[in-house]
Amino acid sequence: MSMNMGGKGMGGRIGATAANKPKNTWRTIKRLMGYMKKSSLLIALTVVFAFAGTVMQVISPKMLGNATTVIFEGIKQGNGIDFSRLGFILLTVAALYIGVFITTFLQQRIMVIVTQKTTYSLRNELKAKMNKVPVAYFDKNSNGNLMSVAANDVDNIVTSLQQSLTVLISSVILVVGVLAIMIYISPLLTLLACVMIPGSLIIMKLLTPNTQRNYKQYLKLQGELNGQIEETYQGFSVVKSFGGEADMLKKFEVVNEGMVQSGWRARFFGGSMMPNMNLVQNIIYVLIAVIGAVKVVGGSITIGDMQAFLQYSTQFSTPLMMLSQIWSSVLSTIASAERVFEMLDAEETTDYKKGFPNNRDETAKVVFDHVKFGYGAQPLMNDFCMDVQDGQMVALVGHTGAGKTTLINLLERFYEIQGGSIRIDGMDIRNTDRQKVRQKIAMVLQDTWLFSGTIYDNIQYGNENATQEQIYEAAKAAYADDFIQKIPDGYNTILNEEASNISQGQRQLITIARAFVANPEILILDEATSNVDSRTELVIQSAMKRLLKGRTSFVVAHRLSTIYDADSILVMDNGAIVETGTHQDLLKNQGTYADIYNSQFTMQSV
User: Fold this and answer.
1) 542-582: pLDDT as tens digits
2) pLDDT digits (tens, 9 = 90+) for 233-274
3) Does the residue 261 lie in any domain?
4) Given 11, 173, 334, 547, which is the most exposed site by the fewest CB atoms within 10 A?
5) Is residue 599 part of a domain?
């Protein structure tokens, strides 16, 4: 085994390259619409129904105006009312109203399907993206914020799209159709009615920036709040033990107050569009009624057409009012979409296209060949070299920040090296798919990870193709079968979210059983006995000895008593190997290892 002394000091965490966040509102909308291309046929069908419904909606006031004219002229001329003509008009209007209802219902039904398909694609893409981003991305972004984007923001998008798209489509068609008939009835009154358009645009222009800015701030704080809640609940016992309830509550109140302030501002400015536009509409409506009455008296327009025009003026302003109402929702959607796209644009792990040199002739199982790596601008490993033979147990020792975990992360390709080479069986790991590299390796960590599910499923997680017999044998080898059989439901016992319905030692034995099922070539142990009592520690150590037998292993050691039998002990400091040898050899050298050993021995004696 070779060693190198060229390490440098340890820096901070790797920061993922800033995401290419959308800055342009229309670019964000265009990108969001791109996810709806698969539903183009359904959207086209929605437009057809919207067009048909709008045409019927536009015709209805004119038909009712004709009915009014029939009644008025019949009474005025003394000839009586033509009930057959009047009845035909009213039946036609009733049919038109039924048609509007049917087309509106179909629009809503289709848009539910379209929006659900869109968000289905977004969620799938987000989930796939999380499997492609480097570990550093999770170092930089809190779990609460990521969960907020995947759940709250995507749900906000689907709700807003579902409510807004049909309104947008129908409103545009309605405005065009109503405007055409209004011009036909009276160009002068139509010109007066059109004052609504610039008035509405001015109102939206004034209120939109504040609305959008506050929505973005609200969603950002929502992610922070979710992160705080998650951290507090996960570490609730620690918070209680150190009396940190008041401090956590204060932090919560600060973020919560920020959400309240940004939330009410966003909704106030967004909600103010409707009342302001309503005021403009009412003023214009009164002016149209006054001028129209003069024209009716002058005989330049029939009373039926005037009645229809008043209805059309309402219909003309209604889409603008609705647009102002949903614009607040649209701005919220854009803010959520920007957060989703920011996550989707995050830098992915490096996929190398060119081959790196292999060394099929070397006999070592794992080789670190002049490896260079650093967190950010600060180098940690400058020229790191290490050879590990097949079946050898290598212990990694050093103070916190020495680089032990970094070495493991590089071997697993959680981080990519910046120079040199890491080879397994002579093959540069960058020439192999990450999944294939990790299939050769199993980890048993200090902090156990078990998911909500049965004990059986948690063990089988190490190898999804494992048979029932293999699962039971792995549990026996890990000394887990005994306690599992004593639980009422045995292997079918459901573990809760944090697996707190079994002890820490039992959780650790299950993770060891999982490693047995995986049957890895290389094993990584990160002081799996540090959180248990002495009796359980002996059981876990016995299980680990079985697991280590015949396998190449890296043991990150915090308690030196667990590595006395290691084939080789590497003492690391600042990303470099400063000592190497067996336990006895290193004690004789009276170097860093001896200092660590003596300090632990002294602490145990005290």
Assistant:
1) 887 788 888 888 888 777 777 878 888 888 887 788 888 88
2) 666 666 666 667 787 788 888 888 888 888 888 878 777 777
3) yes
4) 11
5) yes
How many whole angstroms from its chain centre is CA 428? 33
Q: What's the CATH number where 508 sits? A: 3.40.50.300
Residue 429 in any domain: the answer is no
- 369, 420 contact by CB (below 8 A): yes
**Cα four-point dihedral sign 13, 17, 22, 28:** negative
- Give the count of domains, the chain: 2
Last residue of a domain, one of 344, 359, 380: 344
- Token pair, residue 32, equals 């969001």
For residue 545, what are its two tokens? 């000895």
Domain termination residue (choose one: 322, 344, 366): 344
H or E element in which residue 12 lies: none
Cβ neighbours of residue 552 under 8 Å, at least 6 residues apart? 365, 366, 388, 389, 390, 391, 392, 393, 521, 522, 523
Quick one: 320 and 396 in the same domain?
Answer: no
CATH assignment of the domain containing 313 = 1.20.1560.10
Are 314 and 452 in a shared domain? Answer: no
Q: With bands split at pLDDT 50, 70 and 90, how would you rate the model's confidence at 117?
A: confident
State the DSSP code for 429: G
pLDDT (tens digit per residue) in 460-472: 988 888 899 999 9
Of all helices (H) and strands (E), which one includes residue 439?
helix 434-439
- Which residues is 441 bridged to in the sheet? 522
* Tens digits of residue pLDDT in 358-390: 887 788 889 998 888 887 767 788 888 888 888
465 DSSP assignment: T
The total of other beta-carbon atoms located within 10 Å of residue 430's CB is 19
State how far the Cα of 134 lies from the Cα of 349, in Å rounded to an integer: 5
351 domain residue, yes or no: no
Rounded Cα gap, residues 479 and 466, in angstroms: 18
Are residues 319 and 238 part of one domain? yes
Residue position matching structure tokens 């647009």: 323
E strand intervals along 398-496: 419-424, 427-428, 441-444, 453-454, 494-495
- Is residue 129 located within the same domain as residue 238? yes
Q: Cβ distance 70 to 305 under 8 Å?
A: no
Average pLDDT over residues 71-85: 71
Name the one residue in this structure whose structure tokens are 């009312």. 81
Give me 318's structure tokens.
């209604």
Identify the domain containing residue 256 by its residue range.
25-344
Percent helix / strand / coil, the chain, rounded to 5: 65, 10, 25
Nearest to 196 by CA among 54, 313, 310, 311: 313
